[in-house]
């Protein structure tokens, strides 16, 4: 037995309107999103700066003097890690920035297309964060499983 989905839902029959409280909440959310995105861009800049610093350190210091030589990690690897972190951090920050700008524009100009674009960017922000979180949790589960197998063997 197949369930049929209704073509007309209750939401298709009316236009959603934002009251003044909702607009104020969205306006404040856009301001905070902008602040967080600027801080995020600054953090990305710091990651890139540290990566470049490690690259310069690796060329200036011999491998015997490197503070990471004892751990077996070269400064090149540390710089690559920082660059990858900066790259991964860029996308959610950029989506958050675009959300804040589009939401501000939508509320000022009462533009439905900007409002839709703002929510699309917010969705992309959370989707990226969610997928990243699932990947990290998966890596933690694998590490735990291998550690447990290592202990038992």
How would you describe this protein?
Helices cover 76% and strands 0% of the residues. The protein has one domain (21-152). The longest helix has 41 residues, at 20-60. α1 (20-60) runs antiparallel to α2. With 153 residues, the protein is an all-alpha fold.
How would the blueprint of this fold be written?
Blueprint: H1 20-60, H2 75-109, H3 112-152
Summarize the structure.
The protein has helices spanning 20-60, 75-109, 112-152. The chain is an all-alpha fold and 153 residues long. It has one domain (21-152).
Biggest sheet record: none
How much of the residues is beta strand, in percent? under 5%
| H and E string | HHH
Radius of gyration (Å): 23 Å
Continuous helix count: 3
Task: Summarize model confidence as the mean pLDDT.
Answer: 87
Shape: flat
Query: What fraction, in percent, of the residue positions are helical?
Result: over 70%
The total domain count is: 1
- Straight-line N-to-C gap: 51 Å
How many β-strand stretches? 0
| Low-pLDDT ranges | none
SS content category = mainly alpha
């Amino acid at each position: 037995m197949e369930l049929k989905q209704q073509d007309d839902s209750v939401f298709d029959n009316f236009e959603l309107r934002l009251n003044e409280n909702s607009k104020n909440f969205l306006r404040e959310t856009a301001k905070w999103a902008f602040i967080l995105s600027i801080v995020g861009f600054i953090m990305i800049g710091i990651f890139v700066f540290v990566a470049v610093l490690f690259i310069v350190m690796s060329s200036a210091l011999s491998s015997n003097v490197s503070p990471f030589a004892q751990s077996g990690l070269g400064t090149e690897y540390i710089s690559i890690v920082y660059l990858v972190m900066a790259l991964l951090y860029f996308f959610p920050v950029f989506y958050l920035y675009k959300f804040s700008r589009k939401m501000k524009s939508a509320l000022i100009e009462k533009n439905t297309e900007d409002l839709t674009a703002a929510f699309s960017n917010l969705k992309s922000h959370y989707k990226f964060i969610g997928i990243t979180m699932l990947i990290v949790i998966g890596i933690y589960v694998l590490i735990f499983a291998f550690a447990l197998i290592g202990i038992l063997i």
